Amino acid sequence: MITNLAQGVQAFTSNVFLVTGDVTALVDVGANFDVVSRIGEHTDELDRVYLTHTHPDHVGNVAAVTDGFDVAVWGFDADNPDVDHAVEDGETVEIGDDSYVALHTPGHKNDHLCFYSRGAGVLFAGDLVFANGGFGRTDLAEGHRPTLIESLDRLREAIDEELSEMHVGHGPSVTQRPYDDVELAGRAARMG
């Protein structure tokens, strides 16, 4: 089961996805709200924390989560102080009851990862792509539009039209034809 713990939060934060199952995990921890109590409403323990990337709105609650649940944090760049263990491009990780491949998708930030499970038909897209063909901004440090376009193309090639859920870093998850939103984001990124 996938629950967005940041649903309804008015503070500046990313979405925070709690995925329960064999490996109960968080995908991103958000910022500026009490995520620990929200986790506690659903589970008493976490097995893993995965970061799509290390912008402050996605990692602000790392210390609270690691202190509250004695859990390690996994991300692309193990040199980042918020990351305990590196996830390599192409590595398979367990989230909930499913296996996900980690895809290194820079352009919004150098350490950006997406997590995709073909078997479950689920994608955690971070800030690479959003609903309705939105895509990650490239005007921040490490942002680079041509690299973002390459990452969008790589993601589109990795997923298939059977994708049923795309959980994004901000805004609503996409549960109606999310593949189309990824294609649209690739076209939109080329236009701007």
UniProtKB/TrEMBL annotation:
Residue stretches making up the Metallo-beta-lactamase domain: 13-170
Keyword vocabulary terms for this entry: Hydrolase, Metal-binding, Zinc
UniProt KW Metal-binding keyword: yes
Any GO molecular function: hydrolase activity
Pfam families, per database record: Lactamase_B (PF00753)
Taxonomic superkingdom: Archaea
Cofactor(s), by name: Zn(2+)
InterPro entries: MBL_Glyoxalase_II, Metallo-B-lactamas, RibonucZ/Hydroxyglut_hydro
PANTHER family in the record: HYDROXYACYLGLUTATHIONE HYDROLASE GLOC (PTHR46233)
Protein name stated in the entry: Glyoxylase, beta-lactamase superfamily II
Taxonomic lineage from the root: Archaea, Methanobacteriati, Methanobacteriota, Stenosarchaea group, Halobacteria
